[in-house]
Amino acid sequence: MKMVKLLQLSGLIVMLAFISACRHKPKDGLTDTYTSGVIAIAADESFRPIVQEEIDVFEGLFPLAGIVPRYVTEVEAINLLLKDSLRLAITSRRLTQEEMGSFNSRKFFPQEIKIATDGLALITNRGNPDTLIGVKDLRRILTGEAGQWKDIYPSSRLGDIHLVFDNKNSSTVRFAVDSIAKGAPLSTRVKALKTNKEVIGVNWLSDRNDTTGLSFSREVRVMSVSAADKATPANSYKPYQAYLFYGDYPLARSIYVLLNDPRSALPWGFASFLASDRGQRIILKSGLVPATQPVRVVNVKDE
């Protein structure tokens, strides 16, 4: 008799546990919380160094959380967000009205959080003596109006200009078309590969041993860029943090977290970390300009 009662009691406990589990299981099947669980995110491949460092620190602070990054092109990152394949993407642009409308039609209201300012760096061979260029001349190169170095620098002894981008669907190409070429089609001479070794963001170039963020890798030559029609040493700037902060460097772009997480779970937790004091200090150290942290201004001397 006692055995029957014990079995009945055990059955009741199991049933109650099953009912409780069913009651608390989210309708969308997601179980991550603000600081725990495992999620996938997408990030523009050009931001890989800084995003990976942020993930490493975040996971160290919250051992129950796992962030699985997908480093893809900007086009792919936003498409994954639109398809609900993930809930967080890091890009260099905000959502368009059409993209926002697509979310709203499905009763989603994504958030856009600016976390940093980056600079598009122009890199040349270290043997190139010409280190200054104006945005106007850069536009001429992009559209094919200028195809040789002498078209920009009349005394140059160099030949054809070979301009290589990281990827045809990257944020770098979009920025070049929208912000530099002003919507004009790029020249057929402009090539796109699948790397970030030719035209890349500041966070790839910064000397990781320089905590001031004032040095670039010694393996490349970074050009100084001017917003004026004629580039001179006095009006041309490299993408140092202070020049990005004050708007002197003309090829600056913002970095955003695009967030579609109505449950306020782990995607929100990671996004909040990126915007927090700790996350912003990591951005500052990387050579980018954080959205909320002050930038220490010092005098710098170009090569």
Task: Describe what you observe in this structure.
The protein is an alpha/beta fold. It has 11 helices and 13 strands. The strands form 3 sheets. Strands 1, 2, 3, 4, 8, 9, 12 and 13 form an 8-stranded mixed beta sheet that branches. It has a 3-stranded mixed beta sheet with strand order 5-10-11. It has a two-stranded parallel ribbon with strand order 6-7. Helix 2 links the parallel strand 1 and strand 2. Helix 2 packs antiparallel against helix 11. The radius of gyration is 24 Å and the shape is elongated. The termini are far apart. The N terminus is likely disordered.
SSE map:
Layout: H1 2-24, E1 37-44, H2 48-61, E2 65-72, H3 74-82, E3 88-91, H4 97-105, E4 111-124, E5 132-134, H5 135-143, H6 149-152, E6 164-165, H7 171-180, E7 191-192, E8 199-201, H8 202-205, E9 221-222, E10 224-226, E11 236-237, H9 241-246, E12 252-259, H10 266-275, H11 277-286, E13 289-290
Parallel strand pairs: 1-2, 1-3, 5-10, 6-7
Antiparallel strand pairs: 3-12, 4-8, 4-9, 4-12, 4-13, 10-11
Helix pairs in contact: 2-11
